[in-house]
Amino acid sequence: MQMQPLPTALPKPLFEGTPAPPNVPNLEKPSGKPRPPFLVPPGTTNLALRKPVSGSDSDPVIAPWK
User: Fold this and answer.
1) How many CB atoms lie within 10 A of CB 6?
2) pLDDT value of residue 27
3) What is the pLDDT of residue 17?
4) Residues 39, 5: Cα–Cα separation, whole Å
5) Is the Cβ–Cβ distance between 42 and 2 less than 8 Å?
6) Residue 12 burial (CB < 10 Å; 0-12/13-18/19+)?
7) Is residue 5 within 8 Å of residue 37, measured between CB atoms?
8) Which pairs with CB-CB distance under 8 Å and at least 24 residues apart come from 52-58?
């Protein structure tokens, strides 16, 4: 099957005031290289685009200092 890159607009990283990453055993370290394109079959559309975001966790923080 032929695959094509899915155009993705990501926000700029925000490092100012960001706490240290949590101690997660399988968390990849930053590579310092641009991420490879996300490949999808032709005709794929993002069904979540412009949809409201929600969550069920009343306190969505994972941090050792909590």
Assistant:
1) 13
2) 78
3) 63
4) 4
5) yes
6) exposed
7) yes
8) none
- pLDDT tens digit string along 21-56? 677 788 788 788 988 999 999 999 889 889 998 888
For residue 52, the one-letter residue type is P
| Size of the chain, expressed as the number of residues it contains | 66
28-63: burial string, b at 16+ Cβ within 10 Å, e else: eeeeeeeeeeeeeeeeeeeeeeeeeeeeeeeeeeee
> How much is the pLDDT for 58?
79
Non-local CB neighbours of 41 within 8 Å, separated by 6+ positions: 1, 2, 3, 4
- Token pair belonging to 5: 């890159």
The residues facing 1 across adjacent strands are none
